[in-house]
Write the structure tokens for this entry.
Amino acid sequence: MKSIYLSPSTQEKNIGAGNYGTEEKRANEICDITEKELKRHGIIVYRNKPTMTLREVVKDSNSKKPNIHFAIHTNAYNKKSKGCECFCYKFNGEGHKFAKFVYNQIESLTPSSDRGIKQGYNFYGQGKHIYEVAYATAPAALIEIDFHDNEESANWIINNIDKIGTRLAIGALNYFGIAYTIPSTIIKNESYYRVMAGSFSEKENAENRVKQLKKLGIESTIMEYKP
């Protein structure tokens, strides 16, 4: 059975703009959704405690021996920056592979341009790595959802906690090769009406339309057919 260690931010003194509150609070709200969705799909979930230091978090993760270590954060820089970024230890490993799955889910959801996937190795200077991705034994990724010191982005995070948490779970499930299923509690015995938003002869054009729709918060997929 697959397992994951979820590590929402423990930064209780990192305060966001407007009504955001702390990074710790919002990261844990997001993680609550992610944890619920992963467990619903049969994933074993371990999780840090808000009182832990980073060393304690990594030590706890390493003791559990999960398949993946996943840190969930929101970002701060200059009150103007926007967008998601995701860190692995080094490119081309399993942590990088996992980072791509979760980043792609959030990149298609955020309302602004995003900042890509980056290495945590030597991120702060020679020998100074992003701690969790460097010292977790399991392949690891750390995602910065968006910038909480920018009031517009902070409000977007607050208003999209469920969507963000679900998307992170979908990214992890995709990495594990597990299909996401809609909760049975919201499936009703009634008719549904499918809406098409274009038909394209070039796959690239179809992919661009899906990305546009996802930016608007509209779930979209590509279905191939031959006339």
In short: Residues 23-40 form the longest helix (18 residues). The chain has two domains: 3-176, 188-227.
